[in-house]
Amino acid sequence: MTSDTPEAAARALAEGRLILLPTETVYGLGADASDPRAVAAVFEAKGRPRFNPLIAHVADAAAAERIAIFDAPARILADAFWPGPLTLVLPVRDRDQVCDLARAGLDSVAVRVPGHGKARAVLSAFDGAVVAPSANRSGRPSPTTFSDAVEETGFAVAAAVDGGDCAVGVESTVVSVMDGQVSLLRPGAITRHEIEALVGRLNDSVEGRRSPGRLTTHYAPDAPVRINATAAAPGEILLGFGPVQGEPCFALSLDDDLREAAANLFRRFREADRRRPAGIAVAPIPSEGLGEAINDRLKRAAGFVG
Ligand code: TXA
Ligand code: MG
Fold first, then answer.
1. In sequence order, what are the residues at sequence separation of 6 or more whose Cβ sits closer than 8 angstroms to the Cβ of residue 196?
2. How far apart are CA 64 and CA 37, in angstroms?
3. Which protein residue has the closest C-alpha to ligand 1 atom 31?
4. Among 134, 140, 219, which residue has the most ligand 1 atoms within 8 Å of its CB, making it the best to mutate?
5. Which of 162, 201, 157, 206 lies closest to 182 in space, CA to CA?
6. Which of 13, 208, 244, 305 can bridge 183 by disulfide, Cβ–Cβ 3.0-4.6 Å?
7. pTM score of the predicted model
8. pLDDT tens digits for range 52-90
9. CA 110 – ligand 1 centroid, Å
10. CA 23, CA 121: separation in Å to the nearest integer?
11. Alpha carbon 183 to chain centroid distance?
């Protein structure tokens, strides 16, 4: 599939059609957030259960404030991390710009201002909110290259924008700011430490962590995934972290770099899967910083759903 311009993608959105949207985290499957038919087509193409709400992407914080209600901590986080890989779940202000189906009927809405230049170009040209779940079919690893995005849901789109390989490689950090409580719903590129430095301790209660989309197995390649592995068993491919990696091995990072490992994670899942191994074994990944997001995705891929 050849790449369309951001302007062509914006026109497709205005016609109620779907697009492939590059972002700094992963590729998204985009639609006009105010159009229930277009949003329904997104759920359909992904095979996504309708109880799992979508993130509304907008060009800037001012546009986000027209959709959602920001209190002081929400504004601090938006000022610090937008544009960038942070999603805020906030009380909804405008129920039409992000339709009920996109919010799964909730009184909250997830908003994000992506940092990728081409995503911003699409959003500025469209001048409205764009829902964009990761462009994978439901349950599979998120696509982090243009060709992987086309392979996953290219069949459903009228325009596809090639933004190159995604620099971050794991999905945005999702933080809810509701009733004065700040909770981490999904770890991501913006770390717990960076957030707590600005707004104090996160509320980690079970209630606070509830996010409808986190109930099912996710991010899984076709081959079974085994985590905290020190070596590949017969038939397995090892995803290694650090200099000594054994064989057969695909490196997440040769020099203990968590950013590099995150950027490589879903790509390596897909590359390993193409060899049709008996399994994918993944070396232990440190839990601090970006490691929290990587371990979260690994646990879900391995079927340990929290
Ligand atoms: O990096 C990303 O966030 C990518 C790119 C394309 O922007 N998008 C993405 O979207 O990962 P998706 O749909 O795959 O994940 C959205 C997550 C889900 O876990 C969903 O349940 C949660 O955000 N979410 C959305 N709205 C919510 C809400 N109102 N309350 C709680 N969780 C919500
Ligand atoms: Mg997803």
1. 202
2. 22
3. 211
4. 134
5. 201
6. 208
7. 0.95
8. 999 999 999 999 999 999 999 999 999 999 999 999 999
9. 7
10. 11
11. 17
